[in-house]
Structure formats: structure tokens, C-alpha cells
């Protein structure tokens, strides 16, 4: 079960061979436009590509983008019956203007204020009715207003009562709302900000900051993604590091979602957390080698592992 901020990503693609006479900006001759799932919906899509059965919970606006999002979720066989309408906000849409493989501009349409209590209660009813079917519950927070402190704490409480592991892809500075989650996956910058460090440069500083956050959130594990430095798995008792697998980086868009989805999928299968981190590292290497938010398959992961082992 994926609970979080549902988005759509629009890519306006073309070529830029001249500068506008109106302003010093490139003119993009549009060749095609595509809309893909983003945010929590991209996590769900990644899980589907890994052969998981997925339920997604969240909100969209009452606008033209809602049926587009729901149709794409339906095509991926993702259960979207817990995606409700919030008439007070638009569906979150990120539009990227691309010239070849280069992103020139991003335009966001969104409302980031907290959802109302009525919306929270509607979603909690949906979640309560389906939680027992889930092997794992994943909170995908993009700081767009869904995962408020009250709602997040109620969800984690329901999951813990039902014996379900909760893993979190966090955003923002208020990590106390994730208290009680089994595992939290910040990136290095997010860990730095969440623990009020000016910067984290050494392994020792990273481990110290991670343990501080584990104490604050009462979580069992922190998985810290560190870009070209790989992934670190840290608990109060020990830590492990997994080096980066990527040889070429074209686009980091959605790579965090790919890592998060991979971790959730392999943990749900019963794979131990260190192995899940290693496999997620391979998934990330595939994601950053492609342009845009892309889902990674098991076959691609196995193929890359074979290549590394040869």
C-alpha cells in the first residue's frame, strides 16, 4: 500500500536552435508531449513494474488531470479506489520543458497547504478497510499537504496495531510526524537539514546524524541515499555501506522513487534489509541512465547484476 502525494509529470519535448527575439531565452519547437505518473503515483508504478500488487491512497483535484491520472493508474493495474477528490486544490502537475535530453524549465501547478480533517478521515476509512491485505505500507511524502502530522501518526498507529511495517520517503523538517515508522529513507541533504547540521562530510558525521534521527523518530532503521556515494543502512547497533552501481548518469528525475519502491518491494518479499539495499542500488543505476521518471523491471536489475559479476 502506497500512501502519499500523487502527482502528474508532463514532458514538453522538442528542439531549441534559436534565441527568442522577445527575451534572452531559447525557443523550443515542440515535437511531442507526454504525461506520466509522479510522486507517490510514480512509486506505485515502479512497484507494478516489479510485479507487485499495489493499492494507492491519496488525493487529486476535481479537474481535467484527475481522469488522466486515474486512467494511467488503471492501465498499470494499480488499485486507485482510495484516491479521493479534494475540491480545495488542483491535481499536482509538474511540467518540464525539454530540449533534447536537457531540461530548460519546470513549471509547477500545486497547492501545498495541509488537507482538511474531513479529507483525512475519508482516507483513514479507506486505509482501515484495506490495510490487512498489505504486506508493507509505504509513505511517499512530497510535502504537498497530504501527510500532515495528525494523519501520518494515525496511519502509523493503524499499521503498527495491524503488525504492518511502515517505510517512509520523507520530506521537510518535521520528522516527529514519522515517529514509530520501521524505516525512513532520507537523502544526505535531507538528513543534514533534519538534524540541523551545517554539512555532513565524513562517515562519522553521517552515522552520528543518522542515529540522532533514529532516536528522534524511534524508527529501527535509516537508509540514507548519497548520490554518487551510494547508500548507507544505519541502525543504533550497526551500519553498512553500498557503493554506487551507475556508470552513466543522464537524469536523476524519479531515481529516489525507484530506490524507495525497490526497497519496499524486496522487504515485502521477505528479503533482508541489507540485500534489499543492494538490489535498490542496482535499480537506481538503471533509473539514472534513462531520461525522465522511469520504472525499472526485475529483468533489468538481474541483467545489471550479471554485468557487474562478469
UniProtKB/TrEMBL annotation:
GO MF, one example: kinase activity
Domain Carbohydrate kinase PfkB: 1-294
UniProt xrefs under SUPFAM superfamilies: Ribokinase-like
Record keyword rRNA processing present: no
InterPro entries: PfkB_dom, RfaE_dom_I, Ribokinase-like
Record keywords, A-Z: Kinase, Transferase
Cited NCBIfam families: rfaE_dom_I
Protein name as annotated: D-glycero-beta-D-manno-heptose-7-phosphate kinase
Gene for this chain: rfaE1
